[in-house]
C-alpha cells in the first residue's frame, strides 16, 4: 500500500502528521517547550557542568534534544548515549563508544579513564569542547550517576573539558533529589521539567501538526480535541497515537473529512487505543 492510497490524499496531507518518530520539523513550541529548549541551550552556551531535562514518557524530550543537537556549533564534540545501563566501568565504555574512542574491553578501568582523559585534553587543545548527552538517563543507577559526576572533574585550569546533559523521566529527578546525590545536584546548573499539555495546548498542538503536514483547514473539531486531551492527559506521544487512529477511522468511513468527538470515541470504544482515564464524550460531540 502506497502513501497515496492511505488517508493522506483523503485529507490533502503531504505526510503523516502523527508518527511516533521524533521529528524536529513537527515541534510545537508551546511556552513550556520554549522554556525547556532555552534551558538546554543556555546550559550548553554557559558551559554548565550538568544540565538536566525531565518529563513524562512522550512529553517531547527527545524531539527537543534532537533539535538541540542539530544546532550544535562546529567547536562542540557531541557524544550521545541512549538507554545506558550497567555497573561501574561499563558506563565509561558507553561514553568511549559514543565519542568513537578506541578501547579494549578487557583493559582495566583506569586505562579506559585515561583514554577518555587523553581525548578530552586533545579536543581542548584543538579549541573544541565535549558535550556528553545521556538520553533515558533514569536507567543509570545512582552509582552510575556518581561516576558521571566524577567525569566533570576532569579539567584544565579553570576550564571544564566536558559537559553533561541528562535527559530522562521523572524518576531521574527523584534520584537526583536523594540526599546521597547532593554532590551531583550541586553541579546541575540548568534544569527543567516538562509537564503534560493542558487542553488549550493540546488543541494547538494537534492543529499545528496537521498544518505542517499540509492541512489547510481545521480537520479536528474543538470537541474532538477536548476529548483527545481528556483521554491522553495531554501527553504528546499518546495524542499522536489517538489522532493517527482518528484519521484512519475517518478515512475508512468516507462520510466526512471532519474529525469530531464521535469519531474519536469510536476509536476508544473499539479498544485500539488504551485510554488513561474515562471521559464523558457526549458533552463534547
UniProtKB/TrEMBL annotation:
AAA+ ATPase domain residues: 47-190
Gene3D superfamilies, A to Z: P-loop containing nucleotide triphosphate hydrolases
Domain of life from the UniProt record: Bacteria
Protein name: AAA family ATPase
InterPro entries documented for this protein: AAA+_ATPase, AAA_22, ExeA_AAA_ATPase_DNA-bind, P-loop_NTPase
Pfam families per UniProt: AAA_22
Amino acid at each position: 500500500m502506497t502513501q497515496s492510497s492511505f488517508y493522506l490524499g483523503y485529507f490533502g496531507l503531504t505526510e503523516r502528521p502523527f508518527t511516533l518518530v521524533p521529528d524536529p520539523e513537527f515541534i510545537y513550541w508551546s511556552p513550556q517547550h520554549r522554556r525547556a529548549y532555552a534551558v538546554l541551550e543556555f546550559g550548553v552556551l554557559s558551559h554548565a557542568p550538568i544540565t538536566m531535562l525531565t518529563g513524562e514518557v512522550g512529553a517531547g524530550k527527545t524531539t527537543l534534544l534532537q533539535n538541540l543537537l542539530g544546532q550544535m556549533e562546529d567547536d562542540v564534540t557531541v557524544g550521545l548515549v541512549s538507554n545506558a545501563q550497567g555497573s561501574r566501568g561499563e558506563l565509561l565504555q558507553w561514553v568511549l563508544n559514543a565519542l568513537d574512542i578506541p578501547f579494549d574491553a578487557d583493559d582495566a578501568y583506569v586505562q579506559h579513564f585515561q583514554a577518555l582523559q587523553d581525548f578530552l585534553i586533545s579536543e581542548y587543545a584543538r579549541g573544541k569542547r565535549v558535550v556528553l548527552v545521556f538520553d533515558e538517563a533514569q536507567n543509570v543507577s545512582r552509582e552510575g550517576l556518581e561516576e558521571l559526576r566524577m567525569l566533570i572533574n576532569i579539567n584544565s585550569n579553570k576550564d571544564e573539558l566536558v559537559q553533561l546533559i541528562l535527559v530522562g523521566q521523572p524518576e531521574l529527578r527523584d534520584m537526583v533529589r536523594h540526599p546521597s546525590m547532593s554532590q551531583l545536584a550541586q553541579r546541575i546548573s540548568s534544569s527543567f521539567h516538562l509537564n503534560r499539555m493542558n487542553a488549550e495546548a493540546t488543541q494547538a498542538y494537534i492543529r499545528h501538526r496537521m498544518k505542517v503536514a499540509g492541512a489547510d483547514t481545521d480537520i479536528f473539531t474543538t470537541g474532538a480535541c477536548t476529548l483527545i486531551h481528556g483521554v491522553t492527559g495531554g501527553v504528546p506521544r499518546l495524542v499522536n497515537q489517538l489522532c493517527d487512529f482518528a484519521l484512519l477511522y475517518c478515512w475508512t468511513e468516507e462520510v466526512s473529512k471532519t474529525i469530531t468527538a464521535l469519531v474519536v470515541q469510536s476509536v476508544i470504544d473499539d479498544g485500539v487505543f488504551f485510554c488513561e482515564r474515562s471521559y464523558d464524550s457526549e458533552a463534547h460531540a
